[in-house]
């Protein structure tokens, strides 16, 4: 039975690899656009801030659909719920100011980071997940940092671009680390 689960897990990896590469490209493009928009909460910045967790929801849906055969997807459903709340929360907080956006974003980074870490640990037999585990841990720390920075005199959104870039890099690393062929049974 272990080899069957392993074969199913590896069979799900092409879709996961594509998804991870798409997440990398999105994160890099998003970070560049956020940096260009500056640290003001313009309409464009608010749209970008909403789009990041909304994209995370869509990516988790795709991930859950492709991973069903490979094992449990409860963590992905938890991520969907947390990211929906974050998208709504960021949209609402955008009307209040940068500090409130950072608080919501930070809470989301902590919660989704924990979920990512747990999903990565559960997927370890699949291979290529150490980057997701590390990324989840870093997300928890970054989220706490965003919450703390919200209380500074002049909070800034620019750190979010670095967060997205680093997360995107971890997705790319994981995409390359996923196994390329199915194991022999």
Describe the structure.
The radius of gyration is 17 Å and the shape is elongated. With about 180 residues, the chain is an all-alpha fold. The protein has seven helices and no strands. Helix 2 packs antiparallel against helix 7 and helix 6 runs antiparallel to helix 7. The N terminus is likely disordered. About 40% of the residues are buried.
Helices, strands, pairings?
Layout: H1 2-11, H2 13-37, H3 43-67, H4 74-93, H5 98-122, H6 130-149, H7 158-177
Please state the CA-atom Rg, rounded to the nearest Å. 17 Å
Low-confidence sequence ranges: 1-10
Structural class: mainly alpha
Q: Helical region count?
A: 7
Say how many strands there are.
Answer: 0
Shape: elongated
List keywords for this structure.
mainly alpha, 7 helices
What would a concise description of this structure say?
The chain has 185 residues and is mainly alpha-helical.
């Amino acid at each position: 039975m272990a080899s069957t689960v392993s074969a199913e897990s590896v069979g799900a990896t092409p879709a996961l690899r594509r998804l991870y590469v798409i997440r990398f490209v999105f994160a890099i493009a998003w970070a560049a656009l956020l940096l260009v928009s500056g640290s003001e909460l313009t309409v464009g910045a608010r749209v970008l801030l909403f789009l990041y967790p909304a994209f995370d929801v869509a990516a988790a849906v795709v991930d859950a659909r492709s991973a069903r055969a490979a094992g449990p997807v409860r963590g992905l459903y938890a991520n969907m719920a947390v990211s929906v709340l974050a998208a709504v929360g960021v949209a609402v907080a955008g009307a209040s100011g940068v500090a409130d956006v950072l608080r919501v974003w930070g809470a989301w980074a902590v919660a989704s980071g924990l979920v990512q870490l747990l999903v990565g640990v559960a997927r370890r037999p699949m291979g290529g997940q150490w980057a997701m585990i590390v990324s989840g841990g870093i997300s928890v720390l970054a989220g706490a940092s965003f919450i703390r920075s919200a209380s500074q005199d002049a909070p800034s959104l620019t750190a979010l671009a670095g967060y997205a870039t680093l997360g995107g890099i971890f997705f790319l690393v994981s995409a390359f680390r996923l196994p390329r062929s199915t194991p022999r049974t």
